[in-house]
Amino acid sequence: MSQVKAYGAQDKDADLKQIDIERREVKDKDVKIQITYCGVCHSDIHTVRNDWGGSKYPVVPGHEIIGKVVEVGNQVSNFKEGDLVGVGCMVDSCRECDPCKNDLEQFCENGMVGTYNGKDKHLGGHTFGGYSEMIVVEEHFVLSIPKNLDEKAVAPLLCAGITTYSPLRHWNVQEGDKVGVIGLGGLGHMGIKLAHAMGAKVVMITTSPKKAEDAKRLGADEVLISKDEEAMKKHANSFDFLLNTVPVKHDINPYLALLKIDATMVMVGAIEPLEPMHGGSLIMGRKRVAGSLIGGIKETQEMLDFCGEHNVVSDVEVIDMQNINDAYERVVNSDVKYRFVIDMESLRN
Amino acid sequence: MSQVKAYGAQDKDADLKQIDIERREVKDKDVKIQITYCGVCHSDIHTVRNDWGGSKYPVVPGHEIIGKVVEVGNQVSNFKEGDLVGVGCMVDSCRECDPCKNDLEQFCENGMVGTYNGKDKHLGGHTFGGYSEMIVVEEHFVLSIPKNLDEKAVAPLLCAGITTYSPLRHWNVQEGDKVGVIGLGGLGHMGIKLAHAMGAKVVMITTSPKKAEDAKRLGADEVLISKDEEAMKKHANSFDFLLNTVPVKHDINPYLALLKIDATMVMVGAIEPLEPMHGGSLIMGRKRVAGSLIGGIKETQEMLDFCGEHNVVSDVEVIDMQNINDAYERVVNSDVKYRFVIDMESLRN
């Protein structure tokens, strides 16, 4: 065990402050990573504030981790000292159940271990995330980062990137498909970039006309203002796929009206109760609505490689660790384009 | 044009009474059918009572029609006088749009013509359904009835049968799959029979323990009482497919918890707003909810042929036309096992 510096919250109303946490010794299959950057995900804030219940304190958030390998265990074969690597939302799973065997560790029947607030099998207690100097993770859950990408802008790919890439791939979005991305935040901006890189005709769907220009800069071919009933009618029954990144309760019926026969809208943002869905919104046109949760480790590596090939990264604003509490307020107010990333050098200084 | 006897309602509060309606002359592609039996669908009642709005009076309901061909047009090739035939929920569509060309007439972009309450292209006004002596329908919308089946028990296949067969087939239910049928009414009882005939392991899911015995008689391997939280927990994440036939507003979240990863629940009953769905119910396990509406004409013929091969018909209670108003009360009170069928001879007498 070694003590490392981290930033954590002691209870749901507390600001994040510097604390010391323990990291395990490097075991045979482990990779020890000196963290260089860590993205700020809205889930971090929900966990710090115990919005979903079940938070264990101190909470040390962070599951968009980039860093350099500083030590590897005896049985590690894919990584060596000096490699640039990433860690996303999971640091462990049972590896034996059907979902694990099928590269869907996020749905592990025995419970995947979250990068923070998960059950720490090694030290007991709960896991601590990436708002820290160092982390030790089993090799299977460590990702390779393409060398051509800007490492700080890669961090959000580990959560926002895979969360949007996975459904686009799983529902087989093809070149030329008309894809709608609903909501322009951390997830939505990655959805636009990734769908565009896949060759789709991307329509940004938003309540807010002032987001139009930015959406086009990010790769949207068109912007559809969802409050404009005429425009919504014009696009009715025309979308091959919709990626719904809206993170709060909302009415999905107007979006279902946009889908072609047999087409699907995938929810990746809202994990809370939605406004009542009409059965008829699905029945007329044999439409579908589905959910998707991050992605498995294999697919996360595929996503990173895809981003390397297509030069896709997140739009980020880099902050010092000491400014995290202000950053949280700005995330809550949707005042970030489009992801904060913490320069972890600021914690070490 | 010829006048025929029918039963219709003059306004939303009126009982059904005998009235005279007009049927068109037989055109080149038309088949004239002397109706022998007509099933009673809950939609008939909704339309008579204008529950969904848009009812045109007089309403002559009935879209589960069985009868004998008595005359065919010059260009009719598939039917001849004396054939036993059926007519379901549609009597026309544009035949030119993509859905029509892909055998999905129910989703015709120019609007399929309902067997009743649709726009009558020939006589003007609106279409009149099967609660009548006679109907004239274009050949494409006329179905062949397998000779080995009891014709009166076939009538409900034209709506309840295809409504449940189509999603079971479209979502590719296979032998050995664990299929849940939610709700035991007209649709649910056909869902059980059809899924059983496809070789699925069928679980009847109902709020009502007293339906258990009947469900097993119909072909269910097991009955799951949805109010029994322990039992629901035992079946969590275990279903390959769910067919939801509940016709009213309800909470779908407990059913979504029953689905395996990537599995789908298809709604065929409720066309109204449901209780709020939780985004998390879909996101955890990449689950799906979809809708399905009757089926195209080609698939309806396939369903009838399948029922012929597997000797599947509806459980019916045969009534005289004169008893229709009492029957409606019993349908509304779920007091029928499982479909009323009108013996149309009673109208002719």
UniProtKB/TrEMBL annotation, chains A, B:
Record keyword rRNA-binding present: no
TM annotation in the entry: none
GO molecular function: alcohol dehydrogenase (NADP+) activity; zinc ion binding
InterPro entries, A to Z: ADH-like_C, ADH-like_N, ADH_Zn_CS, CAD-like, D-isomer_DH_CS1, ER, GroES-like_sf, NAD(P)-bd_dom_sf
Gene3D superfamilies per record: Medium-chain alcohol dehydrogenases, catalytic domain, NAD(P)-binding Rossmann-like Domain
Keyword Metal-binding included in the entry's annotation: yes
Keywords: Metal-binding, Oxidoreductase, Zinc
Cofactor requirement: Zn(2+)
UniProt name for this protein: Putative zinc-type alcohol dehydrogenase-like protein
